[in-house]
Hints:
The complex is a heterodimer. Chain A is α/β, with parallel strands linked by helices. Helix content of chain A is 36%, strand content 30%.
Amino acid sequence: MTAVLEARGLGKKYGRRRALSDCTLVIPAGHVAGLVGPNGAGKTTLLHLAVGLLQPTSGTIAVLGGRPAESPALLGRVGFVAQETPVYAALSVADHLRLGAWLNPGWDNDGAERRIEQLSLDPSQRAGKLSGGQRAQLALTLAIAKRPELLILDEPVASLDPLARREFLQHLMEAVAEHGLSVVLSSHLVADLERVCDYLIVLAASRVQVTGEVEELLATHYRLTGARRDPASLPAGQQVVQASHTDRQGTLIVRSEGPIHDPAWTVEQISLEDLVLAYMSQAGEADRVRRSGLGVVR
Amino acid sequence: MIRLSWRQFRTQAAVACAVLAVIAVILAITGPHLVHLYDTTVAPCKTYGDCGLAQSVFVRSDGKLQSFLADFLLVVPALIGIFWGAPLIARELEAGTFRLAWTQSITRKRWLAAKLGVVGLASIAVAALLSLMVTWWSNPFDRVNADRFSPAMFGERGITPVGYAAFAFVLGVTAGVLIRRTLPAMAGTLAAFVGARVAMTIWVRPHLIAPVRTSLSFLSLGSKTGVGIGNTPSGLSMIVPETAIAPNAWIYTNQIIDTAGHAPTNRFLRAACPLAAGGPPPGSQTGGGSAGPHSSPSGAAAFHACIAKVAAQFRVVVTYQPAGRYWAFQACETAIFLALALILAGVCLWWIRHRLS
């Protein structure tokens, strides 16, 4: 099966500021992939590179086997819901469906109208008067009705209240089930992703920290608690993600392909949230070290 | 994409149509009356004798409407640039809707082409219709004023407003693309458009076609309205109004010189034209009087004698654009602004494809 998104050494700079560095990443088809990371980690930059709104400053990115936005045909195969779910405030809901039909040869008008009806949106309502949740649903409807193979959503639920958030994700999952879409969606909240994603990419400090199927990640990460001990003394194949300790006790988040039998440790499974946080704080620390190191060199 | 551009533009288009319709109605009502007035007062004025009076009364009719149309046609291209051009893309960039548009199954090139095409053609149509109506309505005045090259009239008749509107529109779009914010783009559009218009009028237009230089005899001019001797504070000087040289021509310079290139001296004029020099100048109690052929019967004879004496030594040397070049100038200036609009459209496309990503 081909990859829906494949990045090699991808980087993007805005002037001198690095928004994304050396990002190598393969997202296989058929997944709902969550892109998670703190604010400012480069999630939006990565997604904008994937839909061709931005051009990389280094490296390459391929989406569905082609350069993003290289042709109208490829544009038609990728649906995108941008952050803040922008819609034309002066145009009505029905206008937006017409817009979709005019601009997309593969437009599924019946499907779009059905969805608008399900959402009980008034087609004559101006999009500027919709609530945040309704606007997000309209943007999602537009992205789904062009019948893409890959749907990319940038923080689609960030500004929604919990109920609207749940409804949005529910509609998204219905569409995935119905059309067999691959999805990449970003969020800074793991709880949103946990419900829908089966693939995870953690992006922090403008770098990819970890990527993989959620089940596999959960099966290979452990929390070890026990007497404080040098992390370097762990056997090969066990990789420390995060270490924290008090005077006597140590807690390690460890990635290991095989089971851990060392009786010195209390071994626990960890939640997705803890896993993500471990990678994010590790990245934050590494970033701080890198910066202070540079400071010393200067 | 054309349909979407039209959908986004149709409210503005309706407003423009309404304004044009109101102006069309007003001009359609007043226009025929002006033609009638011209036919009954100015056209037969020769038979009554006093054309000057008939003309000066006529050109003041419908004065408020005249000055409104002049102002309106002057600002319409700027308004198009500010209200149609500048927000066209700046608003999409501000609201983030460009991310929606650019991820549909359509290239940015087509997106831009449709937007520029629909609103640009509307801008051109509005300017063309307005100019056509005003040119038709003002025709009687323009015939009397006989000054088609004057900056105000040149830019508000014929095809130049079309060039200005197209240019102002694309200028506004470009400002929006470069500045990315609607209000600053609007201000930038106004400043740049005024700058371009002023630069064209003052520095470029006079050099579009090399002027003609010719010398005229005073005798051939002597019978025309307005030629005479002026009594100015600095002394006497010959007056040759531009309309006396050639109606509707564009006079650059107009010198009265002898074969050696010298202007008539004050002493020479005093000797040649004692009437103008001595006594209170006819028609005026203050310094700036003049002597013309119609002052009085004895004055007429003295005037003709004066002209004959001046004409024996001096000629009028004129540098000018003949009236027949009017449409060449119109076409040239319009073409320049249309070309600038095309270049700016190319800048927009390049910027949208390469810099906004």
